Amino acid sequence: xxxxxxxxxxxxxxxxxxxxxxxxxxxxxxxxxxxxxxxxxxxxxxxxxxxxxxxxxxxxxxxxxxxxxxxxxxxxxxxxxxxxxxxxxxxxxxxxxxxxxxxxxxxxxxxxxxxxxxxxxxxxxxxxxxxxxxxxxxxxxxxxxxxxxxxxxxxxxxxxxxxxxxxxxxxxxxxxxxxxxxxxxxxxxxxxxxxxxxxxxxxxxxxxxxxxxxxxxxxxxxxxxxxxxxxxxxxxxxxxxxxxxxxxxxxxxxxxxxxxxxxxxxxxxxxxxxxxxxxxxxxxxxxxxxxxxxxxxxxxx
Length: 301
Ligand SMILES: [Zn+2]
What we know:
This protein is mainly alpha-helical and 301 residues long. The protein has two domains: 1-98 and 277-301, Orthogonal Bundle (Rna Polymerase Sigma Factor, Chain: A), CATH 1.10.1740; 100-232, no CATH class. The chain is built from 14 helices and no strands. Helix 3 (45-61) crosses helix 4 (72-91) and helix 6 crosses helix 10 (215-229). The radius of gyration is 19 Å and the shape is globular. It starts with 5 loop residues before the first helix and ends in an 8-residue tail after the last helix. Zinc ion binds at residues 230, 233, 258, 264, 266-267.
């Protein structure tokens, strides 16, 4: 996903000026997909509505600090993830994988939890979200390098390589299982991984930035940043095109993979929201969010 777009910036400026209609439109635009996302992780519908409300409060009360280094949807998803993690922590509940969960773990010969080795979500996004100037340049350079790699794959319609990279870096799935999922041999997976890492490192080095960490840390760092920036997630309009089957065939297959094999939770929330266009159902939630957030908006001068 891209940095904030010009129409989004316009929207944001209006909200920053305290425009209530713009804020209401903003809530209306995003609440459905956020609620879908929350409901997938919080079975009690009241809990899901609570975290959506909290995410909007978090958004409006931190408007000054938002630097526009990702698009608004991605930023909202990062806020709601944090709220969901908090609510799990409050309940001291089992750990939960927020990246994706449609991936079938039963094919694994170890047959244990597919995400046993994956670090807990409490740790994920910690690095990227850390407000530390020392890391700002590294984050920016690394994000650009990954963005270049992903865009290159998309432009060349090299979706197989993109899928391999997503499974490895976005989902942290081991080589062997990536090979099984993609029905290819492990050597190919290793090669695509090697080339991808090399390209990312070279791009970073060209900027004369040192990343420092060991290669294992480096891969965790890629996942952190990937979750935050969602480099490979199709746009909502592309997911709409997928639903209507109007995409070109390679894109149609790729979006299908991203939604149903990789099972990206963010994109599935969008898909479900688009499928159900929930205007009536969420009207009440809308009113509730407006009531609890409007006080945060600046009064126009
Ligand atoms: Zn996605």
